User: What shape does this take?
Amino acid sequence: MSQLHVVIGGYGRVGRYLAHVLEAEGHSVSVIDRNPDILEEIEDDIRGQKFTGEVFDREVLELAGIEDVQHRLMISDRLSWHSASFSPLRGTYRHGH
Assistant: This one.
């Protein structure tokens, strides 16, 4: 299996689980969370990079390596957040898959 780079928006229960599973499988992970306290708590929790900010902020996404991501998956209990999160990326990063 080839290595993937995964950007995870939010480091709650699901984000934390995904980061651990993906790193255990040998993939690189970047985590974005708006709460700096959560990211401080996890300083050594994962090997990947951690970014404070909104997942729909283009600058933060680019710092997290969104241009290297081949697939996008959004998990949220807020429907309005889904479309807002990736709207800055529409048509920006394309892969041949």
